[in-house]
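Subject: sequence -> structure tokens, single chain

Hey, anyone have a minute? Need the predicted structure for the following. Not urgent.
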Amino acid sequence: MAHYRIRFPGDERKLGRCLANPFRVVVLQESRDRAVICCAFTSYGGFWMGFALFEILMVITELEPPSKDGKVVWLIVWGIFTLLNFVGTLNANRVVQFVFASLTALFFLLAAGVNNADIHILAG
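Reply:
Had a minute. Here:
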């Protein structure tokens, strides 16, 4: 098995700071009793780290990539979770509502884009 070294552009410390930022937000928001935001940022931080690890492992190891249906289900479950967080923010300001509404749309578009290249481009 060949060993691959993944190089990230720029300083590797920047990657560590980016991965730690969601958890820093939790610490700041917990002191203000914003439970929905704390739950969301902790969950999303874990999701994006797991998703990145999943994609990196598919490149650097000999693991068989899972079926596309598994990825669709995973993204739909996160879309539902985000939709529930959006419902939890209905009494918050409009900016927070917009963030959760756009994330909900993003997850469902990404799920639809797994099997459709045009939707995948639209989702980013």
